[in-house]
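Protein in question quoted in full.
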Amino acid sequence: MISLSKQRLSRRAMLRGGTAFALGLPMLDIMLDEHGTALAGGEPIPRRFITWMFGNGVDLNDWEPADVGPDYTLSPALAELAPVKDYVTVCSGLAVGSANFITHHEGMIAFSGHTYVERPDLGGIAASDWGGPTIDQVIADKIAEDTTLPVRSLQVGVSRHPSPADNGSAAETLSCRGEPDALVPLPPQFQPKAAWETLFGEFVGGRDDKELRGSALDFVKGDADRLKAKLGNHDRQRLDAHLDGVFELEQKIAALAPPCTFPDEPTAVNDYPVHAEPLTELNQVMSDLIATAFACDATRVASVLFLHMAGEVRLPETSQFDTHHNHSHMMDEGYRDGVRYIYGRLADLMTTLQATDDGGGRNLLDNTIVYATSDCAHGETHQYVRMPIVLGGAGGGHLVHPGVHYQSIAAANPHGGNAPNSGNTSDVLLACLQAFDPEATEIGADEAYSDTPLTAILA
């Protein structure tokens, strides 16, 4: 049962329904200090972190904004991010350090700062394993040193169609934990119901049998009513909005399942053909899950594998007649249309975070860093120079806001064979890490090592 002490409530408080279910609470005024700038116990407002990855790169000529600094203009490829532009920082022209070149795989170094480990024994055109922990897991480790959360990190995926030619943990996952010689890849969950159960326990939304109720909220109603009686009007409204959001999320998850059955999304990729994956709907449900998890403080770290390395899927709502990977080799309007669609789904995640109250007059996007890039830079050549990096959110005041376009070196023809690049993508990783570990001075190893955070993107 919820208990209040001196009219303050712990951020760790939960709504409980016996031993069957527990639901985290949103950030309430009663959890904050008298100024609303810290938790009641003096701890800082939580910061969150998300990595977001899509395969097959971009058309750099269509992607790189024409102007730099603040007040830059979004490029055609990034136009879908317009609703959240103040929270968007674009990093162009950066180099990724790699000792080898096997296409697609070297771009994944931008998520870890460690050169991949080649795995020719796995077959295919190319195969590699992670060479070191990914940035999300480095941050999750740091958070775990100071805070005990129900879920250390959440890994989800959207498209289930991987490349048939690329293998290894770097091709199949976006998160990897541990030391370079003892790494544990963390596979994404592609079923929204499974992701829900990781966060909150058994999924009961959408059930229609006599012994089990139809919503998780039925389990915690008594505790919620008792808490509401002790809250002010603003906190009661915020709690009601949070519970309504949880119920709506249950309904979205149930709606993705075949009708008249208990939600159980397909596990085999062939259950969703490459031309018929409901990517927009799946991405929105995963975005809602992440926002709910962050609002409940169930976890503070997530990764989204939107489209696998060299992913073979036909993107909906586009002019594509073939898979996005094949269109990347054509470098046609179908490919550019696909890239715009992808950034539209990133915008969906960011607008979902922005629409979620995080207390003290802030939203989740104010207190989150979203790090998004691809497995290569330019789609046609699969080159990894001038890696396309987008940062979303303000990171609790850590990142510059409104966002800027940082360009390490100009390029009149970004996709040309001699396109210049400079700096280091790991400089961006280190800048993000310092939002969670101000004492961090380095990240990565070998060619991708960095001890120089990219200060141009910091507040």
